[in-house]
């Protein structure tokens, strides 16, 4: 199975079974930009994967064994290896799976690309920006008219 899974697991749900050989599993959330980054890399590299969406407001108890912080994305291999954090999962996928490389091989070019990613990661999220904009009198008047 590849792409977005229709099921979303929450509190009280049973954990999924072992990851089938030849697949990698990503614990995700449909609207999480960090998990989306990992899913984009999986798709760009053509990696066969299974998506398990986690209800982040009502997390299943077993998910904390996958990632004690309770955050997505988390990759799980068929060997039971767990890889957490968006940037780390993307770099792992690029190094562990042959074929099209997403990171440059030149160390300087790679460092430059990582600096750009760092700037993007430090930028406020759209949700925070929207909340701040709603406090602006000009914007709020447009929303109420």
Automatic annotation (TrEMBL):
Domain of life the protein comes from: Eukaryota
Return one Gene Ontology term, BP aspect: L-ascorbic acid metabolic process
Query: Per UniProt, what is one Pfam family of this protein?
Result: GST_N_3
Q: Which UniProt keywords apply?
A: Oxidoreductase, Transferase
InterPro entries xref list = Glutathione_S-Trfase, Glutathione_S-Trfase_N, GST_omega, GST_Omega/HSP26, Thioredoxin-like_sf
Q: What is its EC number?
A: 1.20.4.2, 1.8.5.1, 2.5.1.18
Q: Where is the GST N-terminal domain?
A: 22-101
GO CC, alphabetical: cytoplasm
The record's GO molecular-function terms, alphabetically, read: glutathione dehydrogenase (ascorbate) activity; glutathione transferase activity; methylarsonate reductase activity
Catalysed reaction(s) here are: methylarsonate + 2 glutathione + H(+) = methylarsonous acid + glutathione disulfide + H2O; RX + glutathione = an S-substituted glutathione + a halide anion + H(+); L-dehydroascorbate + 2 glutathione = glutathione disulfide + L-ascorbate
Q: Which family does it belong to?
A: Belongs to the GST superfamily. Omega family.
**Stored PANTHER family:** GLUTATHIONE S-TRANSFERASE OMEGA-1 (PTHR43968:SF5), PTHR43968
- What is the role of this chain? Exhibits glutathione-dependent thiol transferase activity. Has high dehydroascorbate reductase activity and may contribute to the recycling of ascorbic acid. Participates in the biotransformation of inorganic arsenic and reduces monomethylarsonic acid (MMA).
What is this protein called in UniProt? Answer: Glutathione S-transferase omega
């Amino acid at each position: 199975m590849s792409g977005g899974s229709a099921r979303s697991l929450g509190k009280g749900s049973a954990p999924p079974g072992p990851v089938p050989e030849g697949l990698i599993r990503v614990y995700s959330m449909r609207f999480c930009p960090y998990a989306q980054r990992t899913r984009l890399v999986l798709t760009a590299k053509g990696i066969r994967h299974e998506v398990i969406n986690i209800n982040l407001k009502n997390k299943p108890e077993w998910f904390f064994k996958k990632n004690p912080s309770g955050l997505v994305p988390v990759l799980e291999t068929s060997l039971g290896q767990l890889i957490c954090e968006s940037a780390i999962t993307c770099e792992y996928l690029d190094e562990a799976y042959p074929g099209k490389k997403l990171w440059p091989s030149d160390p300087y070019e790679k460092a430059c690309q990582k600096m750009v990613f760092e700037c993007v990661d430090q930028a406020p999220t759209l949700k925070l920006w929207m909340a701040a904009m709603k406090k602006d009198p000009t914007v709020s008047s447009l929303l109420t008219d």
